[in-house]
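User: Batch of two.

Assistant: Item 1 of 2:
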Amino acid sequence: MKVMLVNGSPHSEGCTHTALQEVAKALTADGIEIKNFWIGIRPISSCLSCGCCSSEGRCAIDDIVNVFVEEAKDCDAFVFGAPVHFASANGAMISFMDRAFYSGKKVLEYKPAAAVVSCRRGGASATFDELNKYFTIRNMPVVSSQYWNQVHGNTPEEVMQDLEGMQTMRTLGHNMAWILKCIEAGKVAGIERPVPELQIKTNFVR
């Protein structure tokens, strides 16, 4: 079983990375393999709504999003981490998530996911809500912790002083491992994932 930790921060080893690595420690202790994935610092375009991914199975903009979707095929669960910018997830992460969750729908469905947020002071809960909406539109079980998945600090060193935040990350990792093992046990017992109905779309303006 493998969990991908997605770092949406422009800093490869900053506060978001520090939080994700605390999750990783718990996952590793529980025998779960981890894969670190950084979205990088190159500009990430927002979705162009061109519809190409519906037929091609990959985004028409060939960048880090397509790399993620390809590598996600071998992963069983995901933790998406983002810093707070102006009480919201940073712009690059939102563009990444929009396109990854549209073009990578078949790769992500029914795999557990969680969000991790780092901030200096405010905006963590709003960003946490924002990221969770991606999971709940893709049939992904959302893994929780003992508190909302957030850490506070302006530097990695300060984040590590947020003892409650660090504990929340470890609990999240252990909970993720537990969910994955439960899913695996279910497969062994012959329990299949739900068969989706054909999607119904209702337009309110006719």
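Item 2 of 2:
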Amino acid sequence: MKTTLLIMAAGIGSRYGAGIKQLAQVGPTGEIIMDYSIYDAIKAGFNKIVFIIRKDIEEDFKQIIGERIEKICNEIGVEVDYTFQCLENIPEGIKVPEGRTKPWGTGHAVLAAKDIVKEPFAVINADDYYGKEAFTKIHDFLVSDQLKANAFCMAGFILKNTLSDNGGVTRGICQVDDNGYLTDVVETSDIVKVGNGAQTKGVEVDVESLVSMNMWGLSPEFMDMLVTGFDEFFKTVDANPLKAEYLLPIYIGQLLRENKVSVKVLSTKDTWFGVTYQEDKDYVVGEFRKLIEAGVYKADLFSDL
């Protein structure tokens, strides 16, 4: 059965500073975080990789990862494709607001793949490390009878395992019922570590909360829902034309409140980490070194595929 890993790699990375954060080298032989996600996904059973990028980083992206991953995947029968998130790719009859320079968010990014993803798929951020467990759980869900047109899943990470030491982060804090199904996602910005806890704008946040790290398992029919939601989103853009974003967890939360979908939360105790700030890089390099020393990965990452 064909299953796709859809990697959102079009982020501008303004908080990271100079360079493209998705392409920061963190492994012992120049691996980037995406390498580890792709490896874990292939080991879990995914057999198609689709990169969502911007046209202006296409050359660098293909030089640093795309061509290399294509060669590895061609040898083991895994398909690789690309699609582009573009500011001007919006509903017919709508004009880009004057002064708008950034694309329209993660929901818009996924929509960029609607013509090439026709099978069950997982969505991840390019600059996040998720661990092995989540990929396996999501893949197993996608190929099971649990996946239906409106029945999805997501990886649920413990908030304290996802925070940065170097600044505030945005997390989708999840509300889950007694059967493990998502009831709401509350997008919460500027969450910072405070001692053994966390706060946002001076308000305490429960560090044991499950959060969405934009790792979803979705049906191909979800693309049609996204198209509908994107049209509705543009009815609200005039209120904030330069910064309004069509965010994946916000839209899925809306569908949940309208009882149009269900989302099974697949909890994982793996520690998430990523390169949000320039200062995060040294920490991430050290974490991958520990994983290699512990035998989780080989220094020659793809050698056992």
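The longest strand covers residues 182-194.
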